[in-house]
Amino acid sequence: MNLPNKITVARIFLIPIFIIVMLDLFSWGDVNIASMQIPLAHLIGAIIFIFASATDWVDGYIARKYNLVTNLGKFLDPLADKLLVSAALIVLVELGSVPAWMVIVIITREFAVTGLRLLIAERGEVSAAKMLGKIKMWAQVVAISVLLLHNFPFAFLSIPFDIIALWIAVIFTVVSGWDYFAKNKDVFIDHK
């Protein structure tokens, strides 16, 4: 297992730690950040989530730069992303910070695209991430990060940036999923 794959696996192992911290099983209390009270568990959870999300860029950069792209990496990297984002969104639903229907839309898109990728792989083709998919991922990361931080620092300006970012993430999720299916619709045609 090469370094990029180890980084990806580490991202997966951070997910249960993130969940345990976010569910505030230890009741760490609140922290005051610039006169704003945020549960310490949510601050630590946000740091773990942001760190784990950043490793997605790091493992990809190392894999491409040093020609360490492997089939295992092509499998694990998008899986790690989907698991991390799904876990964070489900925790946010549990905390009452995100409407469940938005999370259902995002997770449904991820399952659908994963299924489509399996069909594409069955034909012996590889489907790399497209620009819309990358924008979708970073829109989700930004939205989740701000939601975990209770809209910090935008709460001071009375701007609901967390909700705006979540809507942007949902829109890019739907658009990128639609684009992915539109560009690969021929996979559903039986070639005899």
From TrEMBL:
<feature type="transmembrane region" description="Helical">
    <location>
        <begin position="83"/>
        <end position="107"/>
    </location>
</feature>
<keyword id="KW-0472">Membrane</keyword>
<comment type="function">
    <text>This protein catalyzes the committed step to the synthesis of the acidic phospholipids.</text>
</comment>
<dbReference type="Pfam" id="PF01066">
    <property type="entry name" value="CDP-OH_P_transf"/>
</dbReference>
<protein>
    <recommendedName>
        <fullName>CDP-diacylglycerol--glycerol-3-phosphate 3-phosphatidyltransferase</fullName>
        <ecNumber>2.7.8.5</ecNumber>
    </recommendedName>
</protein>
<dbReference type="InterPro" id="IPR000462">
    <property type="entry name" value="CDP-OH_P_trans"/>
</dbReference>
<dbReference type="GO" id="GO:0005886">
    <property type="term" value="C:plasma membrane"/>
</dbReference>
<dbReference type="GO" id="GO:0008444">
    <property type="term" value="F:CDP-diacylglycerol-glycerol-3-phosphate 3-phosphatidyltransferase activity"/>
</dbReference>
<keyword id="KW-0812">Transmembrane</keyword>
<keyword id="KW-1003">Cell membrane</keyword>
<dbReference type="GO" id="GO:0006655">
    <property type="term" value="P:phosphatidylglycerol biosynthetic process"/>
</dbReference>
<dbReference type="InterPro" id="IPR004570">
    <property type="entry name" value="Phosphatidylglycerol_P_synth"/>
</dbReference>
<dbReference type="InterPro" id="IPR050324">
    <property type="entry name" value="CDP-alcohol_PTase-I"/>
</dbReference>
<feature type="transmembrane region" description="Helical">
    <location>
        <begin position="12"/>
        <end position="28"/>
    </location>
</feature>
<keyword id="KW-0808">Transferase</keyword>
<comment type="pathway">
    <text>Phospholipid metabolism; phosphatidylglycerol biosynthesis; phosphatidylglycerol from CDP-diacylglycerol: step 1/2.</text>
</comment>
<keyword id="KW-1208">Phospholipid metabolism</keyword>
<comment type="similarity">
    <text>Belongs to the CDP-alcohol phosphatidyltransferase class-I family.</text>
</comment>
<keyword id="KW-0444">Lipid biosynthesis</keyword>
<feature type="transmembrane region" description="Helical">
    <location>
        <begin position="40"/>
        <end position="63"/>
    </location>
</feature>
<dbReference type="InterPro" id="IPR048254">
    <property type="entry name" value="CDP_ALCOHOL_P_TRANSF_CS"/>
</dbReference>
<keyword id="KW-0443">Lipid metabolism</keyword>
<dbReference type="InterPro" id="IPR043130">
    <property type="entry name" value="CDP-OH_PTrfase_TM_dom"/>
</dbReference>
<feature type="transmembrane region" description="Helical">
    <location>
        <begin position="163"/>
        <end position="182"/>
    </location>
</feature>
<keyword id="KW-0594">Phospholipid biosynthesis</keyword>
<keyword id="KW-1133">Transmembrane helix</keyword>
<comment type="pathway">
    <text>Lipid metabolism.</text>
</comment>
<feature type="transmembrane region" description="Helical">
    <location>
        <begin position="137"/>
        <end position="157"/>
    </location>
</feature>
